[in-house]
Amino acid sequence: xxxxxxxxxxIAHDNSDDADRLISLLEGASYQVDAHIIDSDEDLAPxxxxxSWDLAIGxxxxxxxxxxxxxxxxxxQKLDIPAILISNSREIVDVVExxxxxxxxxxxxxxxxxxxxxxxSTLEQLEQRRIQEDWxxxxxxxxxxxxxxxxxxxxxxxxxxxxxxIYTNEPFSQLIGYSxxxxxxxxxxxxxxxxxxxxxxxxxLKPLDPNSEFNKLAINLSFVTTDxxxxxxxxxxxxxxxxxxxxxxxxxxxxxxxxxxxxxxxKAESDVFELEEVLELDEVLEIDELLTPIEMPxxxxxxxxxxxxxxxxxxxxxxxxxxSSDGQDSLILCALAEQDAQIRKxxxxxxxxxxxxxxxxxxxxxxxxxxxxxxxxxxxINFVIAxxxxxxxxxFAETLCQQVAGHTFQVGAxxxxxxxxxxxxxxxxxxxxxxxxxxxxxxxxxxADSNASETDMKVYVMDAMSQTDFSVNSEExxxxxxxxxxxxxxxxxxxxxxxxxxDDSAEFYEVLMRPKIEEYPENIxxxxxxxxxxxxxxxxxxxxxxxxxxxxxxxxxxxxxxxCLFINLSAASIQDEKFxxxxxxxxxxxxxxxxxxxxxxxxxxxxxxxxxxxxxxxxLRTMGCRVAMTHFGLSSSPLLVLExxxxxxxxxxxxxxxxxxxxxxxxxETQQLIALLKEMKQHCVAPFIESPTLIPTxxxxxxxxxxxHYIQTPSPKMxxxxxxxx
Length: 726
Description:
Number of helices: 25
CATH topology of the largest domain: TIM Barrel
Structural class: alpha/beta
Largest sheet: 8 strands, mixed, barrel
Distance between the termini: 66 Å
Strand order of the largest sheet: 19-20-21-22-23-24-25-26
Radius of gyration: 31 Å
Strand content: 15-25%
Number of strands: 26
C-alpha cells in the first residue's frame, strides 16, 4: 500500500532511459517501486485492469501513447488512478491542456524536486480518498445488512421521516392490515393512529435535527387498521440514520399486548433492535462476515415471458453487488430483434418467442460470465452481465452484432437470419435505481438512429447522468453532476466590463460562468445546479474557470496590459487549504501577473468561514492578488465582516441598488452605508446597472465603479472599448 512505501507505478513514456530515471528518483525517495513501462495504447485497457495502480506518469508530448489516450483510458474504466504528466516545455498552453485532461500536475522535464513533491502530495490525496471510500463501502454494506435484518425480523419495524412511512417490514404492514409493505410507503403516519392518540404522536412527526438526538422511548399507541379496527401496541421509538438521512424507528415487539390505559411514556427495554446497533456492530466485524454474497440468478431454458419485475430484480442484484466491499460493475444490454415484428406477422406468437429464446441462448453463449436474462418488451431481450467495464462492454456489443448477423438460427425446421440493435450501459454503485436504469437503456434504444444502414454498427451507449435520479439530493449525485459539467464542458465563460466613474485607467472585467442549461439532461432539476456550486466539487470548477480565464488573459495582456479580471470563488475554495499554492503555481507557470487578478468572495461565505477567509485573503495578498467582497449588504450587520477582513473592493448586492433606485428613506440608508464604506477606505462597485438614470446618484453617493447590461452585456471576449467617450 502507498502508506507503507510500496508504489504500483504505470509509466507511459517514449524514452525508456527517461522512464528509468524517474523510477530511480522515486526509489531514492524511499519508495519501493513496482513499475511497468508501456509505450503503446494497445495494451493499455487490460493493463489498467491487471492490478490496482497507485500512480500513472505520462509524457505530455508522447507519440507512442498520447497523454490524451492515457487519461481517456483511465476515465473510461472509472479508475481512481492519479496521473502526473511530464512536459517537454514550460508553456502555459501545455500546462492548461494537461490539467484539462485530468492530470493532477504537469511538470517540466528535469524539475526533480518539483516532481518528488508533486508525487508525495498526489499519493497522500489518493490515500485519503481510499480511506474515505473504504468507510463509505463499509457504511453502505452495513445499511444493506441492516435492512436485510429488518426485513427478516419477527418484530414489527417501521422507519418514519417527516411524518410519513419510508420503510416498513412485513410484520408491521400486516399489523396495519397491508399484505405488501410497499403499499405503506409514503403513507402519512397520522392516518394510521387513532384520533385519541394523535396528540401524543405529533411531537415525533416534526422534521428531525440530526445534531440533537432525543432519548429512546416506548409509548403506548392505538393504531387503526385498514378495516377500521383499533389495536393498542407498545411502540419503541428512537432516532436513527437511514440512507444518509435522519429518521425515526418505530418498533413493536413480536409479543403484542393490548392495552386499554391512556398512553404513557415508558423506559425502552435494552433488547430492542435498532438500526444504529447494527452499524456499531459493523465497526467491529469484517464486512464479509455481515454480508451474504450476492450472486446472479441462473436462467432456466424456458420461453421468455414478458416480466418487467424480473428485470428490476436482476438490476437490483447487480447494484447491490457493485455496492459490496469487493463489488464489481455489471453491464446492462438491451437487444432489439429487428426481424421480430415480421416473424410474428408471418407465423405466430409462439414461434416468434421460440426464435427469441434461440437468440437469447446464442448471446449468453458468447460470454463465460454470469448472465441474467429478462424481457420487458415484445421484441427486446434484456441481459445483465457481471464483471464488465464500459470499454469491454462496447467491444463485446460490437462483436456480438457481427456474430448474430453471421449466424443462422435453427428453430425446428426453420433456418432464420437475424440482426440486432443494442443499447448498453454500466450498472455501478452510483446507479440510481433499477427502474431508472432499464428506462434509460430502453429509451436509448428507442431514440437510436432508425436510418442507420445495414452496415452500420448499431450499438448505442446510454448517458451515465441519465441513470441518476437527481430529484433526490445526495453528495455523491451532486459530485457526479459537477464532474459531468467539467467533462462535457456544460459550462461556459463570459466577460462583463466594470467601468470606473473616476478612474480612467481601470480596465476591469468580471468573469461570469454561464451554465449551458439547454444541453443538460431533462432529469436535472433547476435548483440542482446551485447545489453543485455549494458542494466540494465547486473547487474543481473554480480551478477550471481560473485556468480558462488566465489563458484568455495572457492573450489580452499583450494588447491591453492594464486588464484586470475579477474571478468568483466558491465557499469550497475558501475552505481548501491547498488552493493558494495551486493558484500560485498556475499564475507562475502561465506568467500571469498576480496584480491583474482579483478574487471575489461572497459576503455570506466569508461570514460563515471567517477564519478560513482571513487566512485566504492574507495568502492572496502575499502573492500579489487583490480581493473583493460581493453581494455586500445582505446580512443584518454587513460592516462586521469588513472590520475583521481587509478587502480592496466591495461590490454591492442587487438589493441595495434597488433601494437606491427606489429613493426615499431606503436610498438614504444605503447612501449612509456607502459613506461608511468610504470611511473604511473601500472601493465601491455598483453592479446591475441597466440604465443611465441611476449613474449620477451613484457617483454622488461615492460609487467608484459600475457594471451592468447598460455598460456591456456579458460577452465571450474581453472586447469593451474603455477609451470610448459617452
